[in-house]
Design brief:
Layout lengths: L5 H9 L14 E4 L6 H8 L3 E4 L4 H11 L2
Parallel strand pairs: 1-2
């Protein structure tokens, strides 16, 4: 993203100590080209609900979205 990276964005969405503007239950999926060891854990710990690495497999993305629509 040109203005901020995903970690900055999740801080805005979740806010400090979960006091953000949006519901803490709002699903936020990280789509990233970084697939280094530990990246998934880092993003989930930062507040993302799920992680999908690029190139995106559409079936995997559908499954992730479907899991949140239940």
């Amino acid at each position: 993203m040109p203005e901020m990276d995903g970690l900055e964005l999740i801080r805005v969405i979740r806010g400090d100590a979960q006091g953000g503007r949006y519901s803490p239950d709002l699903p936020v999926v990280a789509l990233t080209a970084f697939s280094t060891p530990g990246e998934r854990e880092k993003l989930l710990e930062a507040g993302f609900s799920a992680y999908v690495s690029k190139p995106v497999c559409m079936e995997q993305l559908r499954r992730v979205i479907f899991d949140f629509s239940k």
